[in-house]
Design goal:
Keywords: Amino-acid biosynthesis, Aminotransferase, Branched-chain amino acid biosynthesis, Pyridoxal phosphate, Transferase. The protein is of the alpha+beta class. It is built from eight helices and 15 strands. The protein folds into two domains: about 120 residues, Aminotransferase class 4, branched-chain amino acid transferase, N-terminal domain (D-amino Acid Aminotransferase, Chain A, domain 1), CATH 3.30.470; about 160 residues, D-amino Acid Aminotransferase, subunit A, domain 2 (D-amino Acid Aminotransferase, Chain A, domain 2, Alpha-Beta Barrel). The strands form two sheets. Strands 7, 8, 9, 10, 11, 12, 13, 14 and 15 form a nine-stranded mixed β-sheet that branches. The protein starts with a strand and ends with a helix. The structure holds pyridoxal-5'-phosphate.
């Protein structure tokens, strides 16, 4: 696989990052994941916008102009012949002597790689995911997409140990989001409910696109927090993320929702989102 490291395209086995890189030592970096369908980038502008915001929030600079980031994405997709999958981008504050204070005048580290993966034809989306609730013990700035992913990894392992696919994180009795996705329920009267944006959750790019689809389809949307107890009374549930699109959730904490099959709203939104995002793909 060809990867991109600081201006160069190299074989992954030749790629080098300093042991002093602050991404490695402090998780001092941000990332984005853009999905690729039919060799094209999905929601690229949204991911770039959020990347810029994450960088600003951490007093980091933009690594290179938007046009250049787009061409690196395209070049990697082409060189690795990715038809379906994702492009991962990471920017860290760079390599410097280990010190908690941010270093000055250090070049940032920019890394991108691709992963080929079948994402439209996903067995999990077909079957529907089983989730369990886990305490949300992450830091307080989840609106920034940092590479600090240890707690979400631990939550995912707790879920797997319980025979589930993923965890829904709960803070003060209310669901924040999934380990790597935004969480939704559909009430008995058909209203889509998802937590409102704040520093408690990541503003999903797929979330924005899917809510737009839902409103265009005349579905009712409420942006507010919900509890696991409320979710257990829901008609259906689902998650959204760049590589999962819309993924139905069929079981929460061991209790099946409705008949235990993917819900109609989730299935419809998944299809609508894939169609709409493909039309706008670049
Ligand atoms: N929430 C968290 C914690 C995530 O890690 C992600 C994606 O990685 C999302 C939500 C969904 O964001 P997006 O739709 O931009 O992929």
């Amino acid at each position: 696989r060809i990867v991109y490291v600081n201006g160069e395209y190299v074989q992954e086995s030749d790629a080098k990052i300093s042991v002093f890189d602050r991404g490695f030592l402090f998780a001092d970096g941000v990332y984005e994941v853009t999905s690729v369908l039919e060799g094209k980038l999905i929601d690229f502008d949204g991911h770039l916008r959020r990347l810029r915001r994450s960088l600003v929030e951490l007093a980091m600079t933009i690594p290179c102009p938007d046009e250049e980031l787009l061409s690196i994405h395209r070049e990697l997709v082409a060189r690795n012949a990715v038809v379906e999958g994702l492009v991962y981008l990471q920017v860290t504050r760079g390599a410097a002597d280990r010190d908690f204070a941010f270093p000055k005048n250090v070049p940032q580290t920019l890394v991108l790689f691709t992963q080929a993966k079948s994402i439209v034809d996903s067995p999990l989306a077909k079957r529907g995911a089983r989730v369990v609730s886990v305490d949300d013990l992450r830091w307080g700035r989840r609106d920034i997409k940092t590479v600090q992913l240890l707690y979400p990894s631990m939550a995912k392992m707790i879920a797997q140990e319980k025979g589930a696919d993923d965890a829904w994180l709960v803070q003060d009795g209310l669901v924040t989001e999934g380990t790597s996705n935004n969480a939704y329920i559909v009430t008995q009267d058909g209203t889509i409910v998802t937590r409102d944006l704040s520093s408690d959750i990541l503003a999903g790019i797929t979330r924005a696109a899917v809510l737009k689809c839902a409103r265009e389809l005349q579905m009712k949307v409420e942006e507010r927090p919900f509890s696991i107890a409320e979710a257990l009374t829901a008609r259906e549930a689902f998650t959204t993320s760049a590589t999962g699109f819309v993924c139905p959730v069929v079981e929460i904490d061991g209790t099946a929702l409705s008949d235990g099959n993917p819900g109609a709203v989730a299935v419809r939104l998944r299809q609508a989102y894939i169609e709409e995002s493909l039309k706008a793909a670049i």
